[in-house]
Amino acid sequence: MSDARRSLDDRIRRLAPPRVGPFRADAYRSRLHEVRAAAWLGIALGVAFSVCFVTGVISHLIQNPLPWFSWPARPAWLYRVTQGVHVATGIAAIPLLLAKLWVVAPLFWTWPPFRGVAHVAERLSLVPLVGGALFQLFTGIGSINGFRPWGFSFPAAHYAGAWIAIGGLVIHVGAKLHIAARALTRSSETGSHLPAGAPVAADPLDAAGAPAAADGPRPASPVGGLSRRGFLWTVTASAGAVTLATVGQTVQPLRRLAVLAPRDPAVGPQGVPVNKTARSARVAEAATDPAYRLAVEGRVGRRLSLSLDDLRSLPQREADLPISCVDGWSASGTWRGIAVLDLLRAAGADDAGSVEVVSLQAPGTAFRTSTLDRGYLLDPDTLLALELNGEPLALDHGFPIRLIAPNRPGVLQTKWLTRVVVS
């Protein structure tokens, strides 16, 4: 290192920190601001974020499939599980993230703020990690509760944010893995206190993993008398409590405990919740028009134009299938209608490679259309449903006819059908 560079580094290290707010030497007195607690919370948060990321990518690929990706029709309950886990782990991550940020808060205020190129890179990696995590949790919780004050597309932004956050997580794990491993392999009775705003001579952790603070050891003052173990168990209990209070929207035996869930899976027309009503979709008039017809067209032997009476006269099939919403709730129902495969046979198109169903909603509306690949077409429980739970479909559930298929997101179970296009 040149003399000029060494001199500059020495001057930076000698800069006196501000003695206000979080830069005060006694700003963080709790002994829980230490590496071992941070490491355990980091592991829990990393697991929650990783599971949430993987299940979220699966959901995105189902809705926006790439050429190499194929989602099976069976088992019928699989998407119900993956998306329920996605939302549950996202909710559980909230108390974990808040606790982690509190424990490592002193590191945000170390002085000097930058101590070389490597430290600058490490600090900058926190921007996508912390910023991305907060963005994902805020928009995700807002979306499942119907609070969407932003003007951007939530699915696109949430997907991009997931990659930003997970990229920051990978960088952060690479930078901190040796520190966490060292802290977790020491005796549980010892911990490495994180430095607050006091000036430091070098890295906050010395070779032994203990902080090197110029002001000497800080008073040990646990939060409310909690030990590290008590603190971690409290955070774990909080994560478990918020999960238990919401997961009942998809795990039926826990429904009565789901006091914080945005949806009760048993409340809605015909005992099944509704996200989009016919009024909000602006299809009520067209769906109830006596002149309604369902067109079957495209690569068919004969084009069909079917009235509601025509549809009711076709062979009917009944299936018990869940509606599994991307918002994390799900509810089972008994659906009755025409198997898509039977309809294709009637149109002379039973060798179809795929089928697109089209809603009465206006062109350009999100999820107005949905595509069924060959795997879904061959499944006998892929239905164009006319009834739910023994009654004609309610208008908000897609009257006069809707798609219902196994193992499929609710946004792809297209309602208020007007066309079936075979290719």
What would you say this structure looks like, in words?
The protein is α+β, with helices and mostly antiparallel strands and 423 residues long. It is 40% helix and 15% strand. It is built from eleven helices and twelve strands. It has a five-stranded mixed β-sheet with strand order 4-3-12-7-8. Strands 5, 6, 9, 10 and 11 form a five-stranded antiparallel β-sheet that branches. A two-stranded antiparallel sheet has the order 1-2. The radius of gyration is 28 Å and the shape is elongated. It starts with a helix and ends with a strand.
Number of helices: 11
- Name the beta content range: 5-15%
Instruction: Determine the structural class based on helices, strands and strand pairing.
Output: alpha+beta
Unreliable segments of 5+ consecutive residues: 196-221
Global Rg: 28 Å
Mean pLDDT: 88
Number of strands: 12
| Biggest sheet architecture | 5 strands, mixed
Can you list the strand order of the major beta sheet?
Answer: 4-3-12-7-8
The H/E string reads: HHHHHEEHHHEEHEEHEEHEEEE
Molecular shape: elongated
Task: Give the termini distance in whole angstroms.
Answer: 68 Å
Give helix % range: 40-55%
Question: Gist?
Answer:
The protein is α+β, with helices and mostly antiparallel strands and 423 residues long. It contains eleven helices and twelve strands.
Describe how the helices and strands are arranged:
Layout: H1 3-14, H2 35-63, H3 78-103, H4 117-144, H5 154-185, E1 200-205, E2 211-213, H6 228-244, H7 278-281, H8 284-287, E3 294-298, E4 304-306, H9 308-313, E5 317-324, E6 330-339, H10 340-346, E7 354-359, E8 369-373, H11 374-378, E9 383-388, E10 391-392, E11 402-404, E12 417-422
Parallel strand pairs: 3-12
Antiparallel strand pairs: 1-2, 3-4, 5-6, 6-9, 7-8, 7-12, 9-10, 9-11
Helix pairs in contact: 2-3, 2-5, 3-4, 3-6, 4-5
